[in-house]
Amino acid sequence: MLRKTYENIDSIGRAIITIEAKDVHNKELAEVIYPDGKKAFAQVIALNGNKVTLQLFGGGFGVSTNCKVRFLGHPVQVGFSDEMLGRVYSGNGQPIDGGPQLTSDMTRVAGPSINPVKRLIPKNMIRTGVPMIDVFNTLVRSQKIPIFARAGEPYNRLLANVATQTDADVIIIGGVGLKYDEYHYFKERIEEAGSKSKTIMFIHTHRDSIVEGLMVPDLALAVGERFALQGKNVFVLLSDMTQWSDYLRQVANAQDQIPANQGYPGDLYSQLASRYEKAADIEGSGSLTILGVTTMDDVTHPVPDNTGYITEGQFFMKDGYLELFGSLSRLKQQVNDKTRDDHRGIMNAMARLLSEAEERVKAQKFGSVKDDYSLRLLDYRKTFQRELMDPFRYLELEDALDLCWDILSNHFKKEEAGLASELVEKYWPEKGKFKILKVEYA
Amino acid sequence: MENAKGKVVSVNESLVGVENTEGSVMNGEVAYIIIEGGKRLKSEVIDIKPGKLVYLQVFEDTSWMRVGDEVEFTGLPLSVKLGPGILGTVTDGLQNPLYELAKEEWFLERGMVVDSLDTQTKWQFTPKVKKGDKVSGNSILGTVPEKLFTHKIFVPFSLQGEYTVETIADEGEYTITDTIATVKDEAGKSMELSMAFNWPVKQPMPFHQRSVPTETLPTGMRILDALFPIAYGGTACSPGPFGAGKTVLQHSIAKHSRADVVIIAACGERAGEAVEVFKDFPELIDPRTGKSLMDRTYIVGNTSSMPVAAREASVYMATAVGEYYRKQGLDVLILADSTSRWAQALRETSGRKEEIPGPEAFPMYISTLISAFYDRAGVELLPDGTKSSLSIIGTVSPAGGNFDEPVTQATLLSTGAFLGLSRELSDARKYPAIDRIDSSSKYPSLITTEEVQFLKEILREGKTTASNLLLMGERGITNEAYINYQKSELLDAVFLQQNSFHPIDGVTNPDRLRMMFDMIKHIIDTPVHIDTKDDIRSHFNFLRQAFLDWNYLKLDDSKFEDQKAKIINLVKQKAHAKENV
User: Fold this and answer.
1) pLDDT at residue B400 in the model
2) Is the pLDDT score of B427 beyond 90?
3) DSSP labels, A156-171
């Protein structure tokens, strides 16, 4: 079908143009055709009479009033097929690895959410080999959970590790605002781990327009959802959603929206939620698990704050360690009673003692910690950090649980642990008979 | 009267401008926008401007809408269908049953049409009026059994004036679409009535006679029932940062509270949480009725990825259904999670309408809407003398966990109990992480006022000693102060903290609460004679362990009395330590 081309661009902004046109659909995809024949994509975001507002995927720079606009008669779509495995695409769905373009099997992007009655209650643990995750904040299939960390922490390494150490059928990496070396790192890690043939990457780097960055999660999730509906267990990695929110803020600002908190649009929560909620364990089908990254300095900042209300917990990374306090897996209760009978008990005991130790750390600054019990608590805290909080130490869950018992026995008397008597009888190791912990008597 | 018509002139996400081409339009009425040659998108008139310009908020995604698309106005406000068959179901914010929708599509596609209430089920109807009787709105035409209750079939509440019954159905089985009565008004005009009718959700149902909340609504959570109680017909709010345990608290109350009907309004929250409820509840047996928990539950869910404009509808939908079951003579409890998401939806629409924003860009009228919502809770005295109630517990999700924001502040002014959730407590794994000092309730507790004061005094003193300990260490305070501190810690650990995931500790009935309180009071009142801080700590460690073991035993367990004796013995040993030496 021949589509009409419009030539009368009214206004050009940082990322939006307006034009007079008729019979245009809300959210329709369009092409902006430059005088030299070059083409760029744009999407209708508002209609007012004959005035059509479009968002430019490539940004407004270089767009001129003699560009033409052609409406394509379909919304934003992304290819979907097994041939995409192993490939790398940009934020507008174009291949950037030199391979062929996909034109068949197109699927809609940012579609409606799945009917909640088609969701299963998540009940399958994902073993990651990371003690702070497996023991204390167990990851569950179909969970949506971000890493909260300062920029510069090794969160991408953890993301790649978790994805490749698990039994995911398909890994989809959505990179938003990546530095080139981060993109390169992901690519290398995936290849090293031998996971390339089950991985698809949608990559937006700092040289690309922010609108493309905004689209990355939608593309990654649309493709992931289709694989999940085919019965695959899919992992979607999104790094970094704080950058994504920042792009959202810029675009909202360009559209003269009234800002809510710190310049972010009032719908930041809904925007983040509609992406993260794609995570699901689907009845009679596969699952989609989302691991994200939210860079932050302060957890009360609007992006981590809104994210925390949406996701099913978060892993808090600080100074290269995975922290116990500040981390949370909301779904762990669904699975950690089915692993080993001491799992819940030891998890709670270790956490309670560490919390007591944290109190002593504060008190230590006032010089008020002198008693034996408090000093042992402080030693315990050091061992805990060294033995368990390293995100790159690989331990099977059972070994990690044994290690917890070793640590308890090394620092405490049985009755101080506050564990049920039957568990203590079954698992308490005598000093010198530790399974995992290597002791240095100070 | 012909219904009005119009054409789309502008589209901005969920806000659509319409030119009113024929008929007159009412603010608040429902309209349908017809897109793609047949999909009907439900929407609501929210503004009427000069030049026949009408603004609609659309309850569905507006993709693929065009300027010029047809609009049909219905002349009716947004309504809920009331009748037998609501209990046990799960609907979206517009009362579309989710299980029925799932039969057609896996995804929540737009414009799907299903009946709000099951029209196939036959209900056993027993008439309560006869030909020639005078009736009016609110009169009872008959009854049907619904799950655990006898469901009264009313003359629609909206009917004004007096009517005469012309026909009434015989005892027998009918669907909600069958005519069960015809009534004639004073002018002689006849009207057919069925077992279900519509009610505009935003309009509060008038009370027959309103009373005040005076009776504790037991929730099975000790910290609530003892320190910060909820009342039948009362209101409460639980603001808190993420991860502080709002959801676990709500689920626990939904399971264990002594209400006849529980309505869960999942407003803008995670779909997974609603799923947990409606997949788990049918399997759980309510020990008080012996029936599935789902039989007393209705879930209305507009989860966070569903269209934002329908969040507001979901909250009002829940409230109107709650008021209806209160008219049935039942004690109803609404759990609204989260009212902040509703407020945010209002903020989004207000922004698109370019209204002048209030604090944090929320609309100026937000506080009025919040207080009017909580005012729909209350105690009602029905014509037959029955006392019934509607209680509302709303969660608030304040940005950054900071309670000094418009939604939390407006909510605090409108509710009778404040359950402030604290990150500090949840980090220390002290669940429920309800602030022991700052929370409050104006409702009566299951223990006496003096006993509540007694507990609060211990907790306040414990908190002061804790900060002294931090500064000066164990050696910096007297043994006596240290013992009192350990007592307050024990009170917190074995009485206020409660393991929601434990089948026995997770719910405490009023009798057991009394027994536990008496025990903790006995421990606190009994003097302790120990000389070193290490021994004091160790003594209380043993006490805590013994008490926790007791908490985990069933009342009829053979070990229950032994364990109780063990605690009393532990207390006794140290009370007389000095005499023995």
Assistant:
1) 86
2) no
3) HHHHHHHHHHS--SEE
Query: Nearest-5° angle of CA A112, CA A114, CA A116?
Result: 135
Pure H helices in A166-236: 180-192, 210-229
Q: Please tell me which of A7-11, A100-104, A287-291 the model is most confident about, judged by mean pLDDT.
A: A287-291
pLDDT digits (tens, 9 = 90+) for B232-264: 999 999 999 988 989 899 999 999 999 999 999
- Which residue do the tokens 């507001």 mark? B312
Structure tokens, A228: 């999940």
Query: Phi/psi of residue A437, each to 5°?
Result: -70, 130
Minimum-distance CB partner of B429 among A26, A351, A374: A351
Q: What is the separation of C-alpha B256 from the centre of its chain, rounded to a whole number of angstroms?
A: 13
Grade residue A3 by pLDDT with cuts at 50, 70 and 90.
Answer: confident
A437 part of a folded domain: no
Task: Enumerate long-range contacts of B152-158, CB under 8 Å, 24 or more apart.
Answer: B152/B327, B152/B328, B152/B329, B153/B83, B153/B84, B153/B125, B153/B180, B153/B195, B154/B197, B154/B327, B155/B183, B155/B193, B156/B193, B156/B197, B156/B198, B156/B199, B157/B197, B157/B199, B157/B205, B157/B206, B157/B327, B158/B197, B158/B199
ipTM over 0.85? The verdict is yes
All residues of chain B having their beta carbon less than 8 Å from the beta carbon of residue A26 are: 11, 62-66
Angle of CA points B307, B309, B315, to nearest 5°: 105
Tell me: do A272 and A141 sit in the same domain.
Answer: yes
3-state secondary structure of B528: coil
Band of pLDDT at residue B473, cut at 50, 70 and 90: confident
Q: Which residue range forms the structural domain that includes residue A325?
A: 78-335
The CA-to-CA distance between both ends of chain B, in Å, stands at: 96
Helix H or strand E segment including B224:
none
Do residue A48 and residue B12 have CB atoms under 8 angstroms apart? Answer: yes
Rounded to the nearest angstrom, the minimum Cα separation between B347 and chain A is: 7
Q: Under CATH, which number does the domain B123-195 receive?
A: 2.40.50.100
Under a CB-based contact definition with an 8 Å cutoff, are residues B85 and B146 in contact? yes
Q: How confident is the model at residue B581 (pLDDT cuts 50, 70, 90)?
A: very low
Six-digit token string for A323: 């922290």
Collect all residues of chain A within an 8 Å Cβ-Cβ radius of residue B357. 258
- Name the architecture of domain B5-78: Beta Barrel (2.40)
Closest CA to B128 of B117, B144, B113, B111: B144
Helix (H) or strand (E) holding B443: none
Is-contact B76 B53, C-beta < 8 A? no
Residue from the list A116, A309, A370 with its beta carbon closest to the beta carbon of B275: A116
Residue of A23, A49, A313 with shortest CB distance to B9: A49
| pLDDT over 70 (residue B579) | no
For residue B484, give how far its alpha carbon lies from the nearest alpha carbon of chain A (Å): 19
Query: Is A187 in the same domain as A219?
Result: yes
Chain B positions in Cβ-Cβ contact with residue A368 (cut-off 8 Å): 469-476
SS3 at position A78: strand
Question: How many residues can be counted in chain A?
Answer: 442
Q: Smallest Cβ distance to B109: which of A22, A112, A326?
A: A112
Residue B525 to residue B467: CA distance in whole angstroms: 23
Lookup: tokens for A307: 């994210």
Residue A411 per-residue DSSP state: H
A320 dihedral zone (left: phi>0; alpha: psi -120 to 50; beta)? left
Superfamily grouping for domain B207-441? P-loop containing nucleotide triphosphate hydrolases (3.40.50.300)
Contacts of B476 in chain A (CB under 8 A): 368
Establish how many alpha carbons lie within 13 A of residue B540's alpha carbon, considering only the half-sphere containing its beta carbon.
Answer: 25
User: Nearest-CA distance from B204 to chain A in Å?
Assistant: 29
Is the CB of residue B80 less than 8 Å from the CB of residue B321?
Answer: yes
